[in-house]
Amino acid sequence: MPLYICCMKTIGFIGGLTWLSSMDYYRLFNQLTNEQLGGASSCKLLMYSVNFEEIKTLTLAGNWPAMAEMMCSLAQKLENAGAECIVIGANTMHHIADTIAASVNIPLIHIAAVTGEAIGQQQLTKVALLGTRYTMQFDFYKAHLAALGIQTMVPDEAGMHYLNNAIYNEMGKGVFLPETKQGVLQIIETLRQQGAQAVILGCTELPILIKQQEVAIPLFDTTLLHAKAAVAFALK
């Protein structure tokens, strides 16, 4: 057996957050692995897919302790099954990433950390963050970016409400409407006019809706960046 296959690490993936973006994660894990190794190579992956309705209910209720307990348990199950890193397939759940990381003995690949690294490589200093209300309001992105000297902008209250509603009541159900796309593009344009040098698509459903060719400033696709970091770890 070739040495690189023996040395490939197993990714532990918590998915279903939502199943739509989890499909993109799965495709990217395998596509990126194959680009590196060639042939018929694909990634080694253990996945636990949750019922997003349960997660949505807990999130809207603000019951983060219950979510942390659930996510820690899942991370531990993946570790016990042989996973060598943890990847949480959602931005919002990284609000409790430090708690989850502390519950296991393997690395957790943090979506905000890898996104911040990518932004820093382009020497940008002011970026807009789009996502759920929780992602935009909590500090887990802003703190990672601030440590790199990057200022985070978010939409106004109306923009945050629009995005949060679209994510939970449309995109999370597999509904991607043209009028919603136009609404998000208008939010991006407003932030660009206010000084944003780039936009973080800080919800793993947003890259399904919004594409780079539709926007005048760089987009950072957090699903892609997260998957790249996981594959880089697995093949390191």
Secondary structure: number of strands: 7
Poorly predicted runs are none
- The percentage helix is 40-55%
Described by the principal axes of the CA atoms, the overall outline is globular
Mean pLDDT: 95
SSE arrangement, N to C: HEHEHHEHHEHHEHHEHEH
Strand-residue proportion: 5-15%
Strand line-up of the largest beta sheet: 5-4-6-7
N- and C-termini, Cα separation: 18 Å
Largest sheet report: 4 strands, parallel
Class inferred from helices and paired strands: alpha/beta
- Total helices: the number is 12
Cα-based radius of gyration, to the nearest Å: 17 Å
Report on this model:
The chain is α/β, with parallel strands linked by helices and about 240 residues long. It is built from twelve helices and seven strands. It has helices spanning about 5, 20-35, 50-60, 65-80, 95-100, 110-120, 135, 140-145, 155-170, 180-195, 205-210, 220-235, and strands at about 10-15, 45-50, 85-90, 125-130, 150-155, 200, 220. It has a four-stranded parallel β-sheet with strand order 5-4-6-7, sandwiched between helices.
Salient structural properties:
alpha/beta, 236 residues, 12 helices, three-stranded parallel β-sheet
